[in-house]
Amino acid sequence: MRIRMLFTMAMLFVPFTTGAQDKPNFSGTWVLDTEKSDFGDLPIPASQTNVIDHTGPNINLTQTITGESVSDGRASTRRHYSTDGKESSNDLGDQQVKSTTRWDGNRLLTDTSLEAPAGKIEIKDSWEITSDRKQMIITRDFKGPQGDHHQKLIFDNKTREK
After folding, report:
1. 3-state secondary structure of 3
2. pLDDT for 26-75, tens place per residue?
3. Are 40 and 151 in contact (CB under 8 A)?
4. pTM summary value
5. Which residue(s) pair with 85 in the sheet?
6. Domain extents for the chain?
7. Checking DSSP bridges between strand 47-55 and strand 28-32, what pairing results, if any?
8. Options 1.20.1420.30, 3.40.50.720, 3.10.450.50, 2.40.128.20; which CATH number does 26-157 get?
9. End-to-end distance of the chain based on CA atoms, in angstroms?
10. pLDDT tens digits, residue range 106-152?
11. Alpha-carbon span 139 to 128, nearest angstrom
12. DSSP characters for 28-96?
């Protein structure tokens, strides 16, 4: 009887431990593939590179965008997220942006809100990495005073193997 109870408890615990190991690490240098991405009706940048350092629950992102869609043709920002659901505050220009990030299986979900001059903007991101780690896919939904927008951004892994 005791062995059966221990076996049952072990089997109930296995799905939780296995799921935790399936969470991907997003570290790397990710370059936007503008040809494969869907920007909806929003401007297409000339280029975008995301350099991500993902250690434990901490994600540090340095994002560089070039093109006519950004001031002076180039913008670089640094942001921090915590995958454990704690709120993160980041400066985006002169705006303070609040985000919460959490896991949903092997997808990373981030909810962001900011107050813009025209009103509140809400952004929902979903990050995924393909099983071969060659691509990161970010789906993004915007809600704001200028309407709703959807994007699907495809990034290629340009991390140099060590």
Report:
1. helix
2. 999 999 999 999 999 989 999 999 999 999 999 999 999 999 888 889 99
3. yes
4. 0.83
5. none
6. 26-157
7. antiparallel
8. 2.40.128.20
9. 52
10. 999 999 999 888 899 999 999 999 999 999 999 999 999 989 999 99
11. 9
12. EEEEE-TTT-B-TTSPPPSEEEEEEEEETTEEEEEEEEESTTSGGGEEEEEEEEETTS-EEEEEETTEE
Tokens of 4: 């059966």
> Which amino acid belongs to residue 142?
F
Residue with tokens 């869907």: 38
Query: Residue 152 in contact with residue 141, Cβ under 8 Å?
Result: no
Residues 6+ apart with CB under 8 A from 129: 24, 26, 106, 135, 136, 137
Mean of the per-residue pLDDT values for the chain? 86
CB atoms within 10 A of CB 6: 10
Amino acid identity of residue 26, one-letter, is F
